[in-house]
Amino acid sequence: MPRMYSVSFTGVAVTAQQDFFELVAPGTISCELHSIYLAQSSDAGDAQDEQLQVAIKSGQTTSGSGGSAPTPIPIDFGDAASGATSEVNNTTKASAGTIVTLHSDAFNVRAGWAYRPTPEERIVIRGARRLTVELLTTPADSLTMSGTLYFREIG
């Protein structure tokens, strides 16, 4: 049975464009993206309201930098460790290669962002391919953000 994993960050000061998430599939196993959640906890008033653009991209051959590298956590704690690698909050975005945008969107910072594709729309990355969830706009001020990405390994 396919194994589900999550990658998260909590309470990070976001002041610049970045890769919220970078996920690299193992060489012999595919990863299927199930959902992504982004939220902030610092701007609650109308005067602080802003829209941020995000995109899910793939095809980068150079990893980003400036963030951290959390270990994907199995949803079923009896499952084996994930073969995928992950990074979060890279302020230097992943680059080079033939980069494609798979999904583009925007969200209101007070509402947050939930990406929950139908089964037919789930993105699959194979054979050491890299996927990023990028912040495309610079926030007007520092945002205290948290997020979680859920994926499963298949194959």
The largest β sheet comes out as: 6 strands, antiparallel
How widely separated are the two ends? 10 Å
Overall pLDDT score: 95
Total number of β-strand segments? 11
- This entry's quaternary arrangement is single chain
Q: Which spans of ≥5 residues are poorly predicted at pLDDT below 50?
A: none
Proportion of residues in helical segments = under 10%
In DSSP terms (H or I, runs of 4 or more residues), the helix count works out at 0
Cα shape:
globular
Structure description:
This protein has strands spanning 3-14, 18-24, 30-40, 51-62, 73-74, 85-90, 95-108, 113-115, 124-125, 130-135, 143-154. The protein is mainly beta. The protein starts with a strand and ends with a strand. The strands form 2 sheets. Strands 1, 3, 5, 8, 9 and 11 form a 6-stranded antiparallel β-sheet that branches. The chain has a 5-stranded antiparallel β-sheet with strand order 6-2-10-4-7, with no helix packed on it. The chain is globular.
Describe the secondary structure blueprint for this structure.
Blueprint: E1 3-14, E2 18-24, E3 30-40, E4 51-62, E5 73-74, E6 85-90, E7 95-108, E8 113-115, E9 124-125, E10 130-135, E11 143-154
Antiparallel strand pairs: 1-5, 1-11, 2-6, 2-10, 3-8, 3-9, 3-11, 4-7, 4-10
